[in-house]
Every structure is written in structure tokens, then in C-alpha cells.
Amino acid sequence: MLYATASQTVGPYLHIGLSGLDCADLTAEAPALAGERIVIEGRVLDARGEPVPDGMVEIWQANPAGRYRHPDDAREGAELALVPGFTGFGRVPTQPDGSFRFVTVKPGAVPGPDGRPQAPHIVVSLFMRGLLKHLTTRLYFPDEAQANASDWVLSQVPAERRQTLVAQPAGAGKLQWQVVLQGEDETVFFSI
């Protein structure tokens, strides 16, 4: 006889065993990394607009040449485009006010499912108490209007909700992006 597995949330004990893997500055170990350095700051907010103080935000991205440090990126010349020290992966806990901050570089375009280039983007995963499964979304760049308009994934999102995936300029080299879990202006999350 099979029994149902007990359900557990992905938190609130995110710091146990994971804090040693935190990486807020994806460029720190890659002094030879070229490209536009950026700071992404934001907050994770619940349905009432209250901060989520005990979550974790992970990002995964291509490098400025549009290459991932991953065996599945087997495109010709992928190894030549990799930069020592840049993994494209970052992880930070949210602060008591729900804030998070990453230092990275703007990623290059990568091929989409139809073979055409996708708009530069960063894949974002969120973990927090009360979730049975982490949430996954994307962050797009405000200075890529033409690429965003033709992006295969972004075009699957209803037009009136796309702005939830596009960061806002917040000064030289800085972007601001809020993650809203539910309600008005809820961030679009993907089912993967």
C-alpha cells in the first residue's frame, strides 16, 4: 500500500545548511569579466504588501556573451566564452524589510525554444515559508524594449502583466525590482 508523503514547506529554515552558499556579488571572483556591471535591488512582498523577512532569492543567468556555465550549454564555442570565476548563480536571504541585493553583469541573449534570441534576462527562484514548491520567474531589463517585445517567453505573458517582470532604472548601473507574491501587481510566476 502506498501512503501519501507528508507535505512540507520550503521554509522557514532556509538558513540551515544554505547560508554558506550565499553569493550576493556574482562578479567578485571574476576580475577578468567584461560587460556592464549592474546592481539589482528589490523587495519581496506578500499579498498585503508586507515584507517577507525570511525568504531566499536565487538567480541564474548567462554571462555577457550569452553563455551559461552549465554542461547543457553545449553550443559551439561555449567553453571559449566562459570567464573564470563567473558561475552565473547567486543566492541571498531577504532582509527583515524583505529586501535583497545582487551585484552582477547584464547577461547576453541566449537562444529561445524556437531558436531565435531571447531578450537578456535573469531567472529568479524564490523560497520561503508557506510554499510547498519554490516560485520561478524572470527579470527583464528596461533598456531592452525591442528585444523584450520579441522575446518568446515574455510574449506568452498577457500584455498588461509584463511590466511585473521588467526591472526599473534606479540610477547609474542600478535596477529596482519588486516581487509581489499575490494580489494587485502580482509578479508573473512560471509553472515549471
UniProtKB/TrEMBL annotation:
Pfam families registered for this protein in UniProt: Dioxygenase_C (PF00775)
Tell me which InterPro entries the record gives. Answer: Intradiol_dOase_C, Intradiol_dOase_core, Intradiol_RC_Dioxygenase, Protocat_dOase_a
Enzyme Commission code(s) on record: 1.13.11.3
Q: What are the record keywords, sorted?
A: Dioxygenase, Oxidoreductase
Keyword Oxidoreductase applies: yes
What CDD domains does the record tag this protein with?
3_4-PCD_alpha (cd03463)
Q: Which residues form the Intradiol ring-cleavage dioxygenases domain?
A: 40-68
GO MF, one term, reads:
protocatechuate 3,4-dioxygenase activity
Query: Source organism's superkingdom?
Result: Bacteria
Cite the PANTHER family for this sequence. DIOXYGENASE, PUTATIVE (AFU_ORTHOLOGUE AFUA_2G02910)-RELATED, PROTOCATECHUATE 3,4-DIOXYGENASE ALPHA CHAIN
The Swiss-Prot or TrEMBL record describes its family as follows:
Belongs to the intradiol ring-cleavage dioxygenase family.
Q: Could you tell me what this protein is called?
A: Protocatechuate 3,4-dioxygenase subunit alpha
Which species expresses this protein natively? Cupriavidus basilensis
